[in-house]
Amino acid sequence: MGRSPCCDENGLKKGPWTPEEDQKLVQYIQKHGHGSWRALPKLAGLNRCGKSCRLRWTNYLRPDIKRGKFSADEEQTILNLHSILGNKWSAIATHLPGRTDNEIKNFWNTHLKKKLIQMGFDPMTHRPRTDLFASLPHLIALANLREVMDQHHPWEEQAARIQEAVQLARIQYIQYLLQSPSGSAMIGSTNSNSLSSITDMEAINLMNSIPSSKEAMLMNSCHLENASLGISPSQPVCDQIPFTPLPDLQFPCNIQPPMCSEISQGGSGFTMFCQGENTPKSIPFIPPTSLPPLVAESSSCGNPGDACSTSSYGGGAPPFWPEFFLEDPFVHEIA
DNA sequence: AAGGGGGGCAACCGCAAGACC
DNA sequence: AGGTCTTGCGGTTGCCCCCCT
């Protein structure tokens, strides 16, 4: 396959297009069609390379281009398609009439990607970020290490902050267990050879165990000086922890494993977004009274690469387990 | 009011693959 | 069958505008 020499000719104009150039290009294409892009510039009287003309036409001058802000529907469509197709901008653009791949790519890079990251999602896998490196900023904010270093605070308060960080890591790990294909394979597995046999109900119990821990955490830590964390005193610290996913933005779950793929926490129970369903299922709160001992095969939970099988990307790093996390009794239950 | 920095977007670059000769 | 041409695509760059200090 030979490569196009394209714009290596000297003397051809580059950079922003002038209105006169736009007019020439539009008039020529309206009259003759674009034909061969390589021949077009000369025929249209433009001192540009054909590639530049093609880009200008397809990304800006084409009459059917819809400009302006992306609607919520379009945003949701992009999210859904990106979770399936990855960075196949042209394929995504075919589902959004009037939008160009370039426009969608820019919108993704400048808005959606950041939005996902802020919400604790991996923009490549569309899954909650399970690696603690990715969550580190949150954890640091929670633990507020600067405050830990402050001798004015008693040891108990410092311990409470660390406990918050551990709690968040637990939540994210459980989300990972429930949402990743390897986790889903683990959950509900009836394979007697596998050490990792967490049933659906056990998983739900596990999730339901969090609020009580969270409440305990609230009792432990919410009396701390919220102001020092830069958090409004009217809202509990823990409620401002970015717990994902947020209910106001449904993330693509139709391509995820056939378990309940999205779980959000709210009120007295959990809301689950299941495959092929747009409406959430409410699961009543089950008191975490009889949580069975959980044993997870270490190798099976350390393969989050499988968690992004629907994407063309490699996926996140394996969960990182710091010492304080492993030493926690809760972790020993599942690890 | 002015300057610096960051964000957003248009355009470019280079690779890949199909079409054509 | 192999080389060249053309087009499409994704990643990157650079400019411009706006906001903050």
Notes on the structure:
The protein has three domains: about 15-60, Arc Repressor Mutant, subunit A, CATH 1.10.10.60; about 70-120, Arc Repressor Mutant, subunit A, CATH 1.10.10; about 130-335, no CATH class. The termini are far apart. It has a three-stranded antiparallel β-sheet. It has 13 helices and three strands. The chain has helices spanning about 20-30, 40-45, 50-60, 70-85, 90-95, 100-120, 130-145, 145-150, 155-180, 180-185, 200-220, 325, 330-335, and strands at about 260-265, 270-275, 280-285. Helix 7 (about 130-145) packs antiparallel against helix 9. It is about 45% helix and about 5% strand. Strand 2 and strand 3 form a beta hairpin. Mean pLDDT is about 55; it is low at about 1-10, about 140-155 and about 175-335. By secondary structure, the chain is mainly alpha-helical. It binds a DNA duplex (21 and 21 nucleotides) through helix 3 and helix 6.
Question: Would you spell out the secondary-structure blueprint of this structure?
Answer:
Blueprint lengths: L18 H14 L7 H5 L5 H12 L10 H14 L3 H5 L7 H18 L13 H12 L1 H5 L5 H25 L1 H6 L13 H22 L38 E7 L2 E6 L6 E3 L39 H4 L2 H6 L1
Antiparallel strand pairs: 1-2, 2-3
Helix pairs in contact: 7-9, 9-11
This protein binds a DNA duplex (21 and 21 nucleotides) through helix 3 and helix 6.
Subcellular location: Nucleus
Protein name: Protein ODORANT1
GO cellular component, one term: nucleus
